[in-house]
């Protein structure tokens, strides 16, 4: 498994990449994907998984998103300027740069990663306010 940890049975964290936006590629507009998506280029627009229960987004070292991100899991090596809404894991690697709020269920953050914004833990269903 290329994410380095043990995957729980039934966990939708994708091990494979179904689509790649390569270096030097830039997209203007919203992007909706299924499965696993890796971005090494630039996106100016929102990035959303079509089924929020099962979709992993990987932002490579040179990857950049200017827009909101709505996924189940996100692994960031690059940069996001916008709000992250993740129903599962947000994994920020050492060079990750986030300018916006991060809504998460689980969070891993390596030394060197930066967030300019708020961390917001998702409320569990049935939890008291």
Describe this structure in words.
The chain has 129 residues and is mostly beta strands. It has one domain. It is 0% helix and 47% strand. The chain contains no helices and 18 strands. It starts with 18 loop residues before the first strand and ends in an 8-residue tail after the last strand. This is Cytoskeletal protein CcmA (Bactofilin family). InterPro entries: BacA/B. Belongs to the bactofilin family.
What is the topology?
Blueprint (H helix, E strand, L loop, with lengths): L18 E3 L4 E3 L2 E3 L1 E5 L2 E3 L2 E3 L5 E5 L4 E3 L2 E3 L1 E4 L2 E3 L2 E3 L2 E4 L4 E3 L2 E3 L1 E4 L4 E3 L2 E3 L8
Parallel strand pairs: 1-4, 2-5, 3-6, 4-7, 5-8, 6-9, 7-10, 8-11, 9-12, 10-13, 11-14, 12-15, 13-16, 14-17, 15-18
Strand order within the widest sheet?
1-4-7-10-13-16
DSSP E strands, number = 18
Broad shape: globular
Proportion in β-strands: over 45%
Helix share of residues? under 10%
Rg (C-alpha, Å): 14 Å
Low-confidence stretches: 1-11
Mean pLDDT: 87
Q: How far apart lie the N and C ends? A: 37 Å
Q: Write the H/E string, N to C.
A: EEEEEEEEEEEEEEEEEE
Q: Count helical runs.
A: 0
Given helix and strand content, the structural type is mainly beta
**Biggest β-sheet strands, sense, barrel:** 6 strands, parallel
Number of self-contained structural domains: 1
